[in-house]
Amino acid sequence: MMMKEKQYSAPALEKGISIVERLAVADRPLTMNEIADQLERSKHQIYRMLVSLETLGWLARTSDEKFFLTNRLFDLAMRVPPRRNLHEAALPLMRELSERLNQSCHLAVVSGSDIVVVARMESPGLLGFAVRVGHRMPIVESASGPVILANVSNSVQKSIRSMISGSDNSKAVSERFETFVKQVVDAGILVRESPLIPGVTDISAPVFENSSEQGVAALTIPFLKGGAAATSIEEAVDALKLTASGISEKLRLG
């Protein structure tokens, strides 16, 4: 006869997670009494846990003593990109894209106030501009940043903008970034001259996860004119859209 595996519990941890989950779905900050009533816990238990979570930076409170989640949970989640599923879905299609256009491409996700490259495919030709895996760049300076920001929920946009506002960005950089976000909202894709590499045009499209239609990544071609590539930017845009759509479909199907 098999012995039933012993179940361990951590009451304090369970209370803390319950509070975080409750505040995550609340449409407004909640008082201690409201949280205690909704979780059916004593006010004394809830108060101690609220103070601990606030001290650790997970919660903050308003001037009228109502509690809400800080950006820390979102920031933590963004530092653990869904790399494995993205790799499996993206790499074969990225290889086809690079071979078809004779151009490099890369896939990036948000990580805090940066984007981080999680996959890349180099150009099969003699010339190409490739970005290494693990490369980080501030969201406001990247081509991927506006594409992702334009395709996430309002709450996620708010969290990302909050982190961006805490960075040392000039007014000109911020305004240029918002112009690119609007371009993505209007056109569904970003096409811009690279502000960093002369002769390179950044072409970036969103990749969506599951059926939520929320952007999870950006697929970007640093389009290099001339050389062995006889493809036009217009053809590259069409091919990139098709590839991003294909990756999204593979993610939806699991």
TrEMBL record:
Q: Which UniProt keywords apply?
A: DNA-binding, Transcription, Transcription regulation
Q: IclR-ED domain: from which residue to which, for each copy?
A: 72-253
A matching Pfam family: HTH_IclR
Q: Which PROSITE patterns does this UniProt record tie to the protein?
A: HTH_ICLR, ICLR_ED
One BP term from GO:
negative regulation of DNA-templated transcription
The molecular function terms in GO held by this entry are: DNA binding; DNA-binding transcription factor activity
Give residue ranges for domain HTH iclR-type.
10-72
PANTHER family named among the record's database cross-references: HELIX-TURN-HELIX TRANSCRIPTIONAL REGULATOR, ICLR FAMILY (PTHR30136), HTH-TYPE TRANSCRIPTIONAL REGULATOR KDGR-RELATED (PTHR30136:SF7)
Record's protein name = IclR family transcriptional regulator
Organism of provenance: Altererythrobacter lutimaris
